[in-house]
């Protein structure tokens, strides 16, 4: 099944990302510690993250042209976060430094046994965009505009400007933020966590909740990530359920796996793949990401992505 829309041509970028960046401090432990206990860590690292910034790096690693639009503090973490995007060759012409602000950080505790993580984060209010500060000049520069919904009213302004030029709107959402109800009708591809649909529409059954989101808000593709079980997408009144991939060498860290899923899905969309193939790419990128500590460390190049898919198809013959 093909996606139910066409990508615009003659755009400066394949994908423009608007939203979160972060610096992650990752701590691996043999098992998640009990309350008021002590435990020796297995490993630790500092790594760049943030949903949108990570997605732009992942798409760039696959060969697409990407730009990141967002705010950093004027601190050491901001220096580091911006440099990682430069190193990845993501365009940062529209990134900002905010005087007196702290760059978003997260402390992430990872259980060695499963690679599952617990995230403790902070985002400085000075980094937020309201509707009057939305960087509209960047909105329509890509074939796809991808954002998180933390600053929902600014995102709505961006989406309206972008859609006027035919840009496809994609969103990464896992929580309900102020103004999200007015934003959702502008989104073409809405991919969320497994828990979000019930929060939004109050329907526990996964398929019914996706149907209800599409009915209420009109998003043309609605879907959810299901961890190691894969994903479930709903488009054109059909469900596409796609199995997950085994992580080569075993899962070390799930931090950023959802961001990696968006990388693969948007990559498939840009390449003109079917929804089924794009979902398979999305699950493959997510699995490959989990090979190493950090949201971006093990994001694959195109050769690695196509190799794991080829091997999976060979096993299924």
Tell me what the structure shows.
The two termini are 21 Å apart. It is built from nine helices and 14 strands. It is α/β, with parallel strands linked by helices and 317 residues long. An eight-stranded mixed β-sheet has the order 4-1-9-10-11-12-13-14, sandwiched between helices. Strands 3-2-7-8 form a four-stranded mixed β-sheet. The mean pLDDT is 96.
Features:
317 residues; alpha/beta; UDP-N-acetylmuramoyl-L-alanine:D-glutamate ligase; 4-stranded mixed beta sheet
Helix-strand blueprint:
Layout: E1 13-18, E2 22-29, E3 43-49, H1 51-61, E4 66-69, E5 71-73, H2 76-87, E6 96-98, E7 105-111, E8 117-122, E9 142-148, H3 152-163, E10 168-173, H4 180-183, E11 189-193, H5 196-201, H6 206-217, E12 221-225, E13 231-235, E14 238-242, H7 257-270, H8 275-289, H9 302-316
Parallel strand pairs: 1-4, 1-9, 2-7, 5-6, 9-10, 10-11, 11-12
Antiparallel strand pairs: 2-3, 7-8, 12-13, 13-14
Helix pairs in contact: 1-7, 7-8, 8-9
Number of domains: 1
* Largest sheet strand order: 4-1-9-10-11-12-13-14
pLDDT averaged over residues: 96
Note the gap between the termini.
21 Å
Can you count the helices?
Answer: 9
CATH topology: UDP-N-acetylmuramoyl-L-alanine:D-glutamate ligase
CATH homologous superfamily descriptor: Ribokinase
Structural class: alpha/beta
Cα shape: globular
Quickly describe the structure.
The protein has 317 residues and is α/β, with parallel strands linked by helices. The protein has nine helices and 14 strands. Helix 1 packs across helix 7, helix 7 runs antiparallel to helix 8 and helix 8 packs across helix 9.
């Amino acid at each position: 099944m093909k996606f139910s829309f066409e990508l615009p041509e003659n755009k400066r970028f394949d994908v423009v990302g608007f939203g979160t960046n972060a610096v992650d401090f990752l701590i691996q432990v043999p098992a998640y510690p009990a309350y008021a206990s002590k435990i020796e860590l297995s490993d630790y690292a500092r790594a760049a993250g943030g949903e949108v910034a990570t997605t732009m790096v992942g798409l760039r690693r696959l060969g697409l042209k990407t730009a990141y639009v967002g705010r950093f503090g004027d601190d050491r973490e901001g220096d580091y976060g911006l440099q990682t995007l430069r190193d990845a060759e993501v365009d940062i012409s529209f990134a900002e430094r905010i005087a007196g602000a702290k760059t978003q950080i997260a402390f992430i505790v990872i259980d060695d046994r499963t690679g599952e993580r617990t995230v403790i984060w902070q985002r400085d209010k000075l980094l937020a965009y309201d509707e009057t500060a939305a960087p509209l000049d960047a909105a329509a520069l890509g074939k796809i505009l991808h954002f998180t919904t933390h600053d929902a009213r600014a995102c709505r302004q961006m989406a309206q400007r972008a859609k006027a030029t035919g840009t496809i709107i994609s969103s990464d959402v896992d929580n309900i933020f102020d103004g999200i109800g007015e934003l959702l009708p502008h989104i073409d591809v809405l991919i969320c966590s497994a828990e979000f649909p019930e929060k939004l529409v109050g329907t526990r059954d996964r398929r019914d909740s996706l149907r209800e989101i599409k009915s209420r808000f009109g998003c043309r593709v609605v879907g959810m990530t299901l961890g190691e079980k894969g994903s479930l997408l709903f488009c054109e009144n059909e469900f596409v359920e796609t199995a997950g991939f085994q992580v080569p060498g075993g899962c070390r860290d799930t931090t950023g796996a959802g961001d990696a899923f968006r990388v693969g899905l948007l990559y498939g969309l840009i390449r003109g793949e079917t929804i089924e193939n794009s979902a398979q790419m999305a699950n493959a990128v997510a699995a490959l990401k989990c090979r190493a500590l950090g949201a971006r460390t093990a994001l694959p190049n195109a050769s690695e992505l196509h190799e794991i898919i080829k091997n999976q198809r060979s096993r299924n013959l």
